[in-house]
């Protein structure tokens, strides 16, 4: 987690709490992690409605 914190700027405690389901990520932290993992975040499509 230390390497991830250093490379993304997201605190280890924030990552740990998010993974454990104790906390949500702030948008800028989610963006930093998504960029690091090369993920594209998009709104969920409503299926069947």
Which features would summarize this protein structure in a list?
49 residues; mainly alpha; 3 helices; 51% helix; globular
Explain this structure.
The mean pLDDT is 93. It contains three helices and no strands. With 49 residues, it is mainly α. The chain has one domain (2-36). The protein is globular and about 45 Å long.
N-C termini distance: 40 Å
Provide the residue-averaged pLDDT: 93
Number of domains: 1
**Which outline best applies?**
globular
Helix count equals 3
Strand content: under 5%
Unreliable stretches covering 5 or more consecutive residues: none
The assembly state of the depicted protein chains is single chain
Rg from Cα:
13 Å
| Secondary-structure element pattern, one letter each | HHH
Secondary-structure-based class equals mainly alpha
Q: Could you give the topology of this structure?
A:
Elements: H1 2-8, H2 12-19, H3 27-36
Structure, briefly:
The protein has 49 residues and is mainly α. It contains three helices and no strands. It has one domain (2-36).
């Amino acid at each position: 987690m230390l390497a991830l914190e250093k490379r993304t700027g997201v605190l280890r405690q924030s990552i740990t709490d998010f993974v454990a389901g104790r906390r949500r990520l702030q948008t800028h932290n989610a963006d930093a992690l998504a960029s690091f993992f090369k993920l594209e975040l998009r709104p969920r499509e409503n299926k069947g409605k």
